[in-house]
Write a structure and sequence with these properties.
The complex is a heterodimer. Chain A is mainly alpha-helical. Chain A has 14 helices and two strands; from the N terminus they run ααββαααααααααααα. Chain B is mostly helical. The chains are: A mainly alpha, B mainly alpha.
């Protein structure tokens, strides 16, 4: 760790009058040391180990050896590209749905809820504290074949359309892409709503009044004032939803079928059951790279680089 | 067409309430099905009303054991992550030093990475070190991924603190320890509490990272996961309902206290 070697000079801009003693200058490093050490040993170092594992060959009995076998990456990608594409597609769709569903609710809490605001916020936060696995299992009951939801969708012929689109099969929802995306959307909605709410709440209400005074319709006010000002919330909400959703396998396993497996599922199976560590490591590196690239491009395009 | 106009005027409210209903629906289903008496091993379809599960919540083998294990891990992970995270947050906000940017990215990265990747890489480290998977590896992993969230929560609060309050305390001859305990800590407390609460929730509910690094140890989320394959006892719904009610009460009380404070301020 290089950060403990040298104490920096105090920058002139700081309103520090007295020149701090050496002992005082070391305070930030002592504060940082335990936590940063923890992250280096248990977060950064594991990534290095995984990088090394991904270019090893061997087996559990004979042991693994670093052979710079980069073909593992190619093999993993050509074997499992459907799961990769599916993961990014499902996560993207869920993120979009979260934004569409979450925005009105965040708007409602920020501007319209009045004295109900606290209660609504509690109902948004409370799921964080209730087991998400139990709640995901509840979707099995809600979307069950003979259940009310499927009956209504069937009567309205919605399922005919979605089946034609390939989202559902044989007039059932469970074990189809639609069920998985529904579960993903549900599970990550709070991660979208909270940042949206935070950035909406900061907007000065007088801006809305000013827009109204200048003869802007509510729609124009939203398009030109509210939405642009909520961009930081949109961006961080999207990231907080998309990143975990792309690696999730709980929804795909509980609500989907073998045709809806996501890449997280493959990584888990390779690591914990097949014990093919190089392939599993390569797969998780490809996932990480894909997510990082998409996130970087997204942040660049949305023009909020200073956000992170 | 007054009905249509009414609908247009209240479109946002209606859409928002529909989303809220979507979010609450599973909780209601969990609650209702905690009073079910299922026919087979799976509690997915309504049979008839019964209070059996509520009368005997620990009647399922291993469930309450896994629950208490999860609580223990969550408590220790919260303590660890909150202590380490608060220290980092103070250092980042209050001091200027080298490698600040690098440390900021190191804090940000765990939140910007799919959990599977972190879980799998930590497992390769443990396998390479020959560590025995179990309580300690779970705890290490939980502190690791909760840390960043605590730092973010505490940082937000410390950044909005007025440093002049501490200067004033020093001017009134308070020593560094006294200033910290009587001035700094009370002001930073809501941020620290928020971070701790978040860490507790994240640790208690974590499945993916635990699944990779638990070995044969079974936490509550892992018990639920296993029961999804073997058969879900009604008691799981009882626990889920209890957790929801406790969570609502805890968060509501927290908000009431915060509001009281806000109103008490001149």
């Amino acid at each position: 760790m290089s950060l403990t070697q040298e104490a920096p000079p105090a920058p002139a801009a700081e309103p520090v009058v007295r020149k701090p003693s050496t002992r005082k200058r070391l305070i930030p490093y002592w504060l940082l040391l335990p936590g940063i050490l923890w992250l280096v040993v248990f977060f950064a170092l594991p990534l290095v180990y995984q990088a090394s594992t991904s270019v090893q060959t061997g087996s559990l009995e004979k042991g693994f050896e670093v052979t710079w076998h980069f073909r593992t990456y190619w093999d993993a990608l050509s074997d499992y590209y459907p799961q990769f594409i599916r993961s990014l597609l499902y996560a993207g769709t869920a993120t979009l749905l979260c934004l569409l569903l979450g925005y009105p609710l965040a708007y409602l809490i920020a501007f319209k809820a009045g004295r109900w605001r606290n209660l609504v916020l509690v109902l948004v936060i409370a799921p964080f504290f209730t087991s998400f696995l139990i709640r995901t299992l509840a979707w099995k009951t809600i979307l069950a074949d003979g259940g009310a939801v499927v009956d209504v969708l069937n009567t309205l012929h919605v399922l005919d359309v979605t089946s034609w689109l390939g989202w559902t099969e044989n007039n059932r929802v469970l074990a189809t892409p639609m069920a998985v995306v529904c579960g993903l959307t549900y599970n990550f909605l709070p991660f979208m709503i909270l940042p949206l709410y935070t950035s909406l709440e900061r907007i000065d209400g007088r801006l809305h009044e000013a827009a109204g005074d200048l003869y802007a319709t509510p729609a124009t006010t939203f398009r030109k004032v509210t939405f642009p000002l909520s961009m930081p919330g949109v961006v961080s909400g999207t990231l907080l939803t998309f990143i975990p959703a792309s690696g999730d396998y709980v929804n795909a396993e509980l609500l989907g079928s073998t045709d809806t497996k996501m890449v997280g599922s493959v990584i888990q199976t390779q690591f914990l059951r097949v014990l093919d560590y190089p392939t599993a490591a390569a797969l998780s590196f490809i996932l990480m790279a894909a997510v990082l690239i998409m996130v970087t491009v997204y942040i660049r395009r949305s023009g909020t680089e200073d956000l992170v | 067409m007054s009905a249509l106009r009414w609908l247009r005027r209240h479109l946002v409210v209606i859409a928002g309430l529909l989303t809220l209903a979507y979010m609450i629906l599973p909780n209601i289903v969990v609650m209702v099905f905690s009073f079910n008496k299922p026919n087979g091993r799976f509690n997915y379809s309504w049979q008839r009303f019964s209070l059996d599960a509520w009368k005997d919540p620990c009647g399922v083998a291993d469930m309450c054991g896994s629950l208490s294990l999860s609580l223990q891990i969550a408590v220790w992970a919260t303590i660890g992550a909150t202590a380490l995270g608060t220290m980092i947050a103070f250092a980042l906000v209050r001091y200027r030093f080298r490698a600040r940017g690098a440390i900021n990215s190191l804090i940000f990265l765990p939140m910007a990475m799919p959990e599977v990747v972190m879980a799998a890489s930590l497992l390769t480290l443990f396998l390479n070190m020959g560590a025995q998977l179990g309580f300690w590896t779970i705890l290490i992993a939980h502190i690791m991924f909760c840390l960043s969230f605590v730092v973010t929560a505490v940082k937000a609060r410390v950044m909005s603190m007025d440093p002049r309050l501490e200067e004033a305390a020093r001017d009134l001859y308070a020593g560094p320890v006294q200033t910290f305990v009587r001035v700094t800590l009370p002001i930073a407390a809501p941020g620290i509490a928020a971070g701790a609460l978040l860490a507790f929730a994240l640790s208690f509910d974590d499945f993916i990272i635990t699944n990779f690094n638990a070995g044969s140890t079974v936490t509550f989320p892992m018990f639920v996961w296993g029961s999804a394959q073997r058969g879900t006892p009604v008691q799981i719904n009882v626990i889920g309902t209890a957790m929801f009610i406790i969570a609502v009460l805890v968060v509501l009380t927290g908000q009431l206290i915060a509001n009281r404070r806000k109103n008490a301020r001149p």
